[in-house]
Amino acid sequence: LWAGAFLASLGTFLLQAGERVRHYAAYPHVTVLDEAENCVLVFPTITLCNYNRIRRSQLTPNDLFWLGRELLGVGREDFPRYLWALGQPPNLAGFFLSKSYDLGAFYQRAGHPIHKMLLHCRFRSWDCGPENVTAVSASAAAMATATATA
Fold it and tell me: Does this model's pTM top 0.70?
């Protein structure tokens, strides 16, 4: 019984495999070309990614207090050394912590502006620049997806 089932299955497999080999050897092909002409092309959507999440030169002691450990991996005991390495005064004696923190304002100030990231832009032999690019979103990794408005 098992031998009969095995032989039936093997026979079916060999028939199907043979049919596929014959089909492949016949080299069937279909080419469909749909061509359209458009005088006006929409400026493409582009994605600019900067692996440096923030510009460290724009950090303040308040940023370090609120985001130091989570964003930069800097503990409070290392704040003075970190500020000194950034060229800022390491003395935190006169520092007063804000009661709240606005992450959006932080990324507006310390994020990477498009006019410094976009070095050259050309589309259909026209020069373009930061004025043609609109930021759509920015994440904690400073990845900006931009859509041009030209």
Answer: no
